[in-house]
Amino acid sequence: MRKKYVYPAIFDYSETPGISISFPDFPGCLSEGDDNEHTISMARDALGGRLYILNRDGENIPEPSDPVKLLSVLEPMQAVTLIDVNMQPFSDMLLEA
């Protein structure tokens, strides 16, 4: 398992309250947060969990989408945000559970 991954997420600010998160490279990988800081934290948790499960199950991990190309599919009140996740602490946390 790689130690660090970076993937684009789409933050949707149209729902009130909160910010919705989706990952174009991982359909169904969704989360939400209260503000930008909380949303980034929640995005890292969601992405780390998905990557951990894919690694654990021996499934292929897709290459990250080009964030610039994603700009053309955004709807109003959406933004592309790069999310990085350090897998070592995340993996340790899941192993302890």
Explain this structure to me?
The chain has 97 residues and is of the alpha+beta class. The chain has a single domain (4-96), classed as Double Stranded RNA Binding Domain. 36% of the residues lie in helices and 27% in strands. It is built from three helices and four strands. The protein has helices at 36-56, 67-70, 87-96, and strands spanning 4-12, 19-22, 30-33, 78-86. A four-stranded antiparallel sheet has the order 3-2-1-4. A hairpin with a 6-residue loop joins strand 1 and strand 2 (19-22). The longest helix is centred in the middle third of the chain and has 21 residues, at 36-56. 15% of the residues are buried.
Q: Mean of the pLDDT scores?
A: 92
The top level CATH class name: Alpha Beta
Q: Could you give a short account of the major beta sheet?
A: 4 strands, antiparallel
The total tally of domains equals: 1
Radius of gyration: 13 Å
- Secondary-structure element sequence? EEEHHEH
Report the uncertain regions: none
What's the total number of strands?
A: 4
Q: Tell me the helix content.
A: 25-40%
What oligomeric state is this? single chain
List the total number of helices.
3
CATH topology: Double Stranded RNA Binding Domain
Measured between the Cα atoms of the first and last residue, the distance is: 19 Å
**How much beta, percentage-wise?**
25-35%
